[in-house]
Amino acid sequence: MHTPSEHAAYPTHWEADVVLRDGGTAQIRPITEADAQRLTSFYEQVSDESKYYRFFAPYPRLSDRDVHRFTHHDYVDRVGLAATVGDEFIATVRYDRIDARGMAATAPADEAEVAFLVQDAHQGRGVASALLEHIAAVARERSIRRFAAEVLPANTKMIKVFTDAGYTQKRSFEDGVVRLEFDLEPTDQSLAVQRAREQRAEARSVQRLLAPGSVAVVGTGREPGGVGRTALRNVLAGGFTGRTYAVNRAFPAGASRLLPEDVPAYRSVGDIGETVDLAVVAVPADQVPAAVADCGEHGVQGLVVLSAGYAESGPEGRDRQRELVRQARSYGMRVIGPNAFGLINTASGVRLNASLSPELPAAGQVGLFSQSGAIGIALLSGLHRRAASLAGVSTFVSAGNRADVSGNDFLQYWHDDPETAVVVMYLESIGDPRKFTRLAKRTAAVKPVVVVKGARHGGTAPSGHAVPTTRIPDATVSDLFRQAGVIRVDTVTELADTGLLLAAQPLPGGPRVAILGNSDSLALLTYDACLTERLRPLRPRDLTTSAGPADFRAALADALADDLCDAVVVTAIPWVGDASAAQLAQSLREAVAAAPTAKPVAVVHLEIPGLAEALAAPREDPEAAPGPAAGGIPSYPAAERAVRALAQAARYAQWRKGTATPGRVPEYEDIDEAGAAADIDVLLAAHGEAAYGRAAHAGGDAPAAPAPRSVQLSAADTQRLLARYGIPVLPALPAPGPDEAVRAAERLGYPVALKPTAPHLRHRADLGGVRLDLGGERELRRAYAELTELLGKPEELRLVVQSMAPRGVDTVVRATIDPAVGAVLSFGLAGAPSLLLGDTAHRLVPATDRDAAELIRSIRTAPLLFGWRGTTPVDTKALEELLLRVSRLVDDHPEVVAADLEPVVVAPHGLQVLGAALRLAPPPVRTDLGPRRLPAY
Questions:
Q1: Quick one: DSSP state of residue 121?
Q2: Which residue from 585, 589, 513, 519 is spatially nearest to 547, judged by alpha carbons?
Q3: Of 260-264, 831-835, 854-858, 879-883, the least confident
Q4: Cα 318 to Cα 311: distance, rounded to the nearest angstrom
Q5: Is the peptide bond prior to 338 cis by the omega test (within 30 degrees of 0)?
Q6: Rounded CA gap, 377 and 344, in Å?
Q7: Which helix (H) or strand (E) covers residue 853, if one does?
Q8: E-assigned strands of 99-138?
């Protein structure tokens, strides 16, 4: 007889906001007993055909018994979820746990029957697909491993929802019904499907904000001046191609036009009587909730909230900000802001300036995202001043507190946007670093992503940014950006310099740089800058101060035709003669246009008025395509700035070439993943941590809980677990006394090493606490006496005897877990290089073979591994394999929250791990493997 599971508490962590296929939002939450009326109302709006598909028979209305059944759940064996918009149901899904006979059951039965119902008006929006992701995650959390669904053959839409999800499936047909069974364990295909849907939905949500058919400015002042009136005038001055409305509840009754702008004026959005796609909100913070409700109830799709007084103002403002996002999403709207500077789209069919910028920037191919209004203004004005026609803007957003729409959303949009060729971002915080890295890497594979990160050393998010902070050092962030192909720069000036070059010039084919010009001194400065940036400059060509435009043209043409040259820097100072700056610019542009191969060219000039403008002027040919071939040349007032931008482009081009042959995560036949998992479960259970389970790693949304304690493994447990992954640790035997030390040495065989393992003495060879190459008993006893006399009692030192490893280079391999970023693999040389100089490199896990090779070579002291100054090169292939095995260990078993292998002695043939420490803890929640959801800060 079936005995129901004990009723679980309401699972708040199952609530989620999601973006649907059309860019609108919905909330997914568990159905409760209080939803009876909502369910009844929802069912009345479903067509008879959809009801028939759900119940396989005419079913015009739900009985009281049905309503009770569909609203009363134990949240274990019977679960129902609803998708809501504006507090009304638009779709439902439920599962019932069943046994092998298809009867109601409890655990350990691990199969459930699942069924959906979507309101006809919302079919085709991807609601069912989103619900399937969330109900599957819930089922996994409740130890359900498989879903079964029975569908009528004519219900092709629902069959497609199941078959397109990417899970491993079995399909059968019996008694006129299609039966689908599928495992709920995430697969590479299901994860790829989920992320593709996420990208399309989030990109569409941004597109709805950027290309509205109509805009209402809510809070337009009755008098000139003020934020609202300014925003309205900017929309009009930019030439917005859609309809524009002014809204202010203080407008006089009966007023129909706002003068002198001659714009339709209304007291509310509801009074407009036509569809409004985007609302720019510029009212005091205490009036925003009413404005949002007015917009949401009348079909507005998105909000740009310029109003301040939110998280940047303190705890009350933070609560107000959370409520703003909750309210807007409940109506299916997305929010830019609050405290935003605004939104710009220069496309000819839109021309939207919904910002506080007084003018619409020149159209171009640079997408700009800024978390600071001041920096956003500086970037816009800097690009306009330096080269408006050379590197115009496609889209711009300054997101303010970015409580909802963030840089991740714009990366989703820009990835496929044909109008954007270069992405430029100013970030002060990253709400979801793991997702940002994934999206940036995908986007960087097709177009450059240039980022400057503010607030690098503060350790906290800036005021107003209600996001989790990460503990990883800024140097690690730089390495992770580099792994993702992100071009990280240090200043806003560099951001503009690099973005300008990438937007105006092709990528260099390599690091070889030709230098030519009429100043030997300026050429030498450029040469030195190239060496500093690890470029390979060719011998500078001095044209002398008597050179004219024709000489520059001929020299540039020769350099561009040279197969040994990948890029050119032209240096120029005022010359002898009557030629104008315009003539020089024209000569340089003609040389570029006639070049047999496209190569980047940058000009460094000193005190030549008008040259920058002439170089940046658009090509006269009206048929010329936009982009790097449009004919403009970027110019810089200093050699260092031009070379640094060129070096960033060269490094990015090299990374981009590497993506054409991506690395792989190798398989090793001797890895015992199952045995390691069993060991970890036993070790965690022995320390009382097993109750946390392993579901979180599989994408389940585990309930919030206090941070679990970590467990430091003993040396024996560490060695056994590492051995499961083919990582042997050189044995070390305890030596609590000199006699025990002698017996240990006899067991291992001379020569041996004697060293302390006490935490305060580990890896402290500088204190004289390690004795090497002890060839016999007499030497060992003498060393033992010296160490105990020098450093303390044997019980304080925890001395061990270890076999001698072959001579080589001492290195350190580490892996750590950051809750926001995930597992990070680190490598450096042991001792002063990593501890004092911070010469350590990092990569995200899982690392590929390419990542491992780059990791070793990216530290500054890498030459010591490759035969520096005549030394014998060490076995870097063995080192790469060790890195990959450690990466596999922490990726396969997220319970391994820290791994420290030090020292790892790399010899000319092979390596030895002399010391190792592992720390275990229940795995952190992997939000990137779970169902799609918008962040809630």
A1: G
A2: 519
A3: 831-835
A4: 4
A5: yes
A6: 12
A7: helix 849-857
A8: 111-118
